[in-house]
Mitoguardin 2 (Callorhinus ursinus), 484 residues
Amino acid sequence: MQSPGSKSNDTLSGISSIEPSKHSGSSHSLASMVAVNSSSPMAACSGPWDTGGMEESVTTSDGNAESLYMQGMELFEEALQKWEQALSVGQRGDSSTPTPGDSLRNPEAASEVLSEPESQRREFAEKLESLLHRAYHLQEEFGSTFPADSVLLDLERTLMVPLTEGSLHLRADDEDSLTSEDSFFSATELFESLQAGDDLIPLSRPAAAYEEALQLVKEGKVPCRTLRTELLGCYSDQDFLAKLHCVRQAFEGLLEDKSNQLFFGEVGRQMVTGLMTKAEKSPKGFLESYEEMMVYALRPETWATTRLELEGRGVVCMSFFDIVLDFILMDAFEDLENPPSSVLAVLRNRWLSDSFKETALATACWSVLKAKRRLLMVPDGFISHFYSVSEHVSPVLAFGFLGPKPQLSEVCAFFKHQIVQYLRDMFDLDNVRYTSVPALADDILQLSRRRSEILLGYLGAPVASSVGLNGALPRENGPLEEMQ
């Protein structure tokens, strides 16, 4: 059951109304250079930019024109590599010229060899060097003016999830840990036993809460914004929904305890702080905004307004799973799976410095958040506080997930892997007890502590594994303030 506005990029219509600027000067010069300096059939790709084809190019959509432009840039870079290889081969060829010993043995032959072939090679090498020099100069000129507004707009359209903007698949070597065949088949057998007839067949293990939830699913009483069946390793949509119902109830019970509220809030704070520290960014602004958001979220008088805000975005249940784990985190991971080719082209372009790429992504993130703020139904509500946090976090995470720095990408990949594995464990009948809601809640809390210890230990952040007698968690900046 997914409403049209349920995705995290529900304000795409507002962003897409911004008209891209047309900066065609550098585009035309680059395409022209490819056409002039290439004798291969691939030079035909620059056709739409030629004078004879300008009328046709006017009718081409901006998206197609930009796609052709980026293809031309890729071909130009490929040509540059070929020229570099040609120069290298030519230089190696010089090493095969006759040695002084050869000239002493046969002076006339040596003079004849050096007269024409070597001079031709040198002349060719000089031309290549001149061509490469001009190409490198063009790179520098291009880097000082790129990207155009239209490319920044494409970046903005990609990064529509404020928290984790900004794509890495789970590591292949961890795939075995993500999917347990024993767990999968045990869940299959269990589900088949429940579907064998109208009367429930006794299960091989106690799962009373799961059985009750499955009956509610059959009656259509378990709403859901987005099915996560495949991502979480569930046997079927019904299996996912039954477990989802139980998980919602478990989190509801857990968060009635204030110490658990503080625990989950502190884990989130420490995780993001650790990520920002790994990215060599100051977490000060984030910590201030996060504290304000937590104070707002835990005030009972704000809950009705928050419900209206989130329902407008398709969230059907005000639970920790639906809001934090599903709406924020899993939507973000999903959106980062397939970024537009133009975004990847910017990030993978070796002509641009890493700092320039990071600035371009940050500008796109901030532009998206600014546009989204204008569309909020509650200017100072939960989503507004969430955007304040995102202003500090989204540029860091966008560059981490999509950027060119291997170490930061590895950190973000590990972060994603731990979150997904945490959710898979939570939806696994072999890892947690679905015998009753309290038993499931206790297992989820222990699972949360274990996974947070692994992740925070990796990030080098203080592990929020123990809660003091007064319900406060240890933290770097003093005790956590009361959030009433």
Q: What stands out?
A: The first helix runs from residue 12 to 16. The CA atoms of residues 216 and 281 lie 47 Å apart. The chain has a mean pLDDT of 70. Residues 12-145 form one domain.
